Amino acid sequence: MFIKMRKGPGYVDGQRIRMHGTGPGLTTRNIDTGPVIAPGGLALHYDAGNPSSYNGGSTWIDLAGGNNLTLTNTTQDVDGGGSVSYDGTATSSVSNVTLSLGSGFTIELVAKHLLGGGQGAGDVIKFDGGGGWRGFTVGGGLYSWIVVANVDYQQQLQDPAPYTSGVWYHYTCVWDAGTAYFYRNGNLTISAARTSDEGVTTGNFNVGGNISTGGYYPGKIAIIRFYERPLDAGEVLNNFNVTKDRFGL
């Protein structure tokens, strides 16, 4: 028996493993968990391009654990190497998710927004545990922002540059020791002091809904990750680099 481990972009020891043998109990199988991403603290991980996470139907499997999303009115899409399409009437959610937020967190999203200039805001990702919520929001004004705590709606951080509807973006939003950081396609666009002081909390994790108006997000989502720790700039860039070719970035 031997284990062959390939290195390079998209591979890491233990990520893609081939086992061969002829003796009793030995079989041939391939295990492919996807590209090499930052380890440690990954609490939620959804990838519509990985058949182990999504292969059609109404369940989007969490690769990090058992917090599978239940999809309503979504469709499977081949765009972006595999994505879930939200047409403005679709939602997905999982309840009773417990996350530890006190030491910092990271929200990562790869999406193609399809909002027009006159549409209202859409909460792409929303975790509503405890007394507030954290998430990623886009607006019809073609701006995106992270919400690190919604106690007074002041604890948010807006990307200074507008997005282009119909284009794939890789967003990473980090909160670390009182500072929020907004990255787009691996590059830091803005950072500022923001407060988010909850510790371990349990709530609902929703995708595609709007907390304030009941509206919905129109667009395509390929990857969602939620870390229970802040990623540093090098980790943010690595996570972007190992998937950018898939989206033509």
Structural write-up:
The protein has 2 domains: 1-32, no CATH class; 41-247, Sandwich (Jelly Rolls). The chain is 4% helix and 45% strand. It has 1 helix and 19 strands. The strands form 3 sheets. Strands 4, 7, 8, 10, 15, 16, 17 and 19 form an 8-stranded antiparallel sheet that branches. An 8-stranded antiparallel sheet has the order 5-6-9-18-11-12-13-14, with no helix packed on it.
Give the SSE layout:
Layout: E1 2-5, E2 16-20, E3 29-32, E4 42-47, E5 59-60, E6 69-72, E7 75-77, E8 83-87, E9 91-100, E10 105-113, E11 122-127, E12 134-138, E13 144-149, E14 155-158, E15 168-176, E16 179-184, E17 187-193, E18 200-207, E19 218-227, H1 233-241
Antiparallel strand pairs: 1-2, 2-3, 4-19, 5-6, 6-9, 7-8, 8-19, 9-18, 10-15, 10-19, 11-12, 11-18, 12-13, 13-14, 15-16, 16-17
Short summary:
This protein is mainly beta and 249 residues long.
For the largest beta-sheet, the strand count, sense and barrel status come to: 8 strands, antiparallel
CATH architecture of the largest domain: Sandwich
Number of domains: 2
Shape annotation: globular
Q: Which fold does the CATH topology of the largest domain refer to?
A: Jelly Rolls
The tally of strands reads 19
SSE sequence, one letter per element: EEEEEEEEEEEEEEEEEEEH
**How confident is the prediction overall: mean pLDDT?**
76
> Gyration radius, to the nearest Å?
18 Å
The unreliable regions are 1-32
Cα-to-Cα separation, first versus last residue: 40 Å
| CATH class descriptor name of the largest domain | Mainly Beta
What is the overall number of helices? 1
Helix coverage percent of residues? under 10%
Coarse structural class = mainly beta
Portion in strands: over 45%
